[in-house]
């Protein structure tokens, strides 16, 4: 019984505060009215065009996956049956296409042994390798990489 009285007292106090303060204008962390739908950012074009016409992009830190210097927006979706990236960067094609070959690390399975084909864990290329876009940075950064890393 005493607990119910305490809860009732707290509810009355909260209602009194809300009445005194009046309506509260709720905003998101981005500053927009919380009830307003978010505005989608502008669609940006990928840099580069047809693969093979661009210079590779220098890496800025040790262990950085290579960046994709050509457009990929017209590529098919990567599935278990098809990965268009391997048509140029795969073990059988890279010499003919003059493209960089998949790293040896892509052929190491979860058991640590080398496989004949790229490991399934390395099959979704854009999880690590990022295409480049003509877009300003989302946040300011003072990062200065070490250019020329391979």
List the helices and strands and how they pair.
Elements: H1 2-21, H2 86-89, H3 94-97
What do these coordinates show?
The protein has 150 residues and is mainly α. It has a single domain (44-150), classed as Flavocytochrome C3, Chain A, domain 2, CATH 1.10.1130. It is built from three helices and no strands. The chain has helices at 2-21, 86-89, 94-97. The radius of gyration is 26 Å and the shape is elongated. The N and C termini lie far apart (72 Å). The relative contact order is 0.16.
Compact summary:
This protein is mainly alpha-helical.
Radius of gyration: 26 Å
Helix content: 10-25%
CATH topology: Flavocytochrome C3, Chain A, domain 2
Order of SSEs: HHH
**What is the level 1 CATH name?**
Mainly Alpha
Strand content: under 5%
Question: What tags apply to this protein structure?
Answer:
single chain; 150 residues; mainly alpha; Flavocytochrome C3, Chain A, domain 2; 0% strand; elongated
């Amino acid at each position: 019984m005493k607990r119910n009285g305490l809860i009732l007292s707290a509810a009355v106090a909260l209602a009194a505060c809300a009445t005194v303060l009046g309506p509260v204008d709720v905003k998101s962390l981005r500053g927009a009215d919380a009830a307003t739908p978010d505005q989608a950012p502008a669609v940006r074009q990928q840099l580069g065009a047809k693969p093979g016409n661009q210079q590779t992009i220098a890496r800025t830190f040790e262990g950085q996956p290579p960046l994709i210097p050509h457009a990929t927006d017209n590529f098919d979706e990567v599935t278990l049956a098809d990965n268009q990236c391997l048509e140029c960067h795969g073990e059988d094609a890279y010499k003919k296409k003059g493209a960089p070959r998949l790293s040896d690390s892509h052929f190491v399975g979860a058991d640590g042994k080398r496989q004949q084909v790229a490991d399934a864990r390395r099959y979704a290329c854009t999880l690590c390798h990022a295409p480049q876009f003509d877009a300003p940075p989302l946040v300011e950064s003072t990062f200065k990489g070490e250019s020329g890393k391979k």
